[in-house]
Amino acid sequence: MIRFENVSVRYDGQEHPALRDADFEVPEGELVLLVGPSGSGKSTLLGAVSGLVPHFTGGTLRGRVTVAGRDTRTHKPRELADVVGTVGQDPLAHFVTDTVEDELAYGMESMGTAPDVMRRRVEETLDLLGLTELRDRPIATLSGGQRQRVAIGSVLTPHPRVLVLDEPTSALDPAAAEEVLAVLQRLVHDLGTTVLMAEHRLERVVQYADQVLLLPGPGERPRLGEPGRIMADSPVRPPVVEL
Ligand code: ADP
Ligand code: ADP
């Protein structure tokens, strides 16, 4: 579903590439974790999936990234929005409307979806993410975990086949992080959505993963280090691919 063929990204004026020769595949319906220290290129890799890199960030991408068969370099992020939904660390940065229900409808509205389809999708998403009771609430009054569920819901309504998340639980307390992870698991299970997620609290999420992609720190060779220990402690040990 996601395919990187020898992908390197170098930003203008940077001495080292932010991503070097990344080559991997994420099969349809898998939940894959992306792990690596700060500055190792996690956001760059995720941006290359959603098309933000290099369209909005500048720099040069070599190699080829395809998502559901579409080359992300020849498609603008807008032209990928029906296949890839992207959620960042800070859900507040994401919101453009006032209430939960409006937020879920917004993405489809801007794609020109028919009103009856839109209403149905919003109902489905409210139900799937456990947000039905909160539909009329102003987003500003929600908890962190609730907000992050709304952010995920807002990119889910167009039924993207791939969901990309950049440390979606990093701003959340443990209970709220669990809420979000449970939602992601349900998406993979019920909708067959392919999920690629950067996450540094590996111990919390490794049990849900089908595969772990490990990025070395800048100038390092890949090494399992702490992820290796966490993995050894986990009852579930997904395969690790060192990039
Ligand atoms: P952040 O500032 O985003 O928390 P860190 O540099 O502290 O990033 O690293 C976060 C986690 O990344 C570490 O706890 C470690 O488990 C993990 N990690 C990922 N890849 C590596 C690696 N190649 N070597 C060592 N630790 C790694
Ligand atoms: P991570 O998400 O693992 O912290 P990033 O992908 O954000 O890593 O960053 C990888 C490297 O690329 C870092 O050295 C960072 O400073 C640099 N970088 C990221 N975005 C840009 C940009 N738009 N322009 C220039 N350098 C960037």
From TrEMBL:
Residues 2-243 form the ABC transporter domain. It is found in: Cell membrane. Probably part of an ABC transporter complex. Responsible for energy coupling to the transport system. Belongs to the ABC transporter superfamily. This is Cobalt ABC transporter ATP-binding protein. It comes from Streptomyces uncialis. The chain holds residues 1 to 243 of 536 of the full protein.
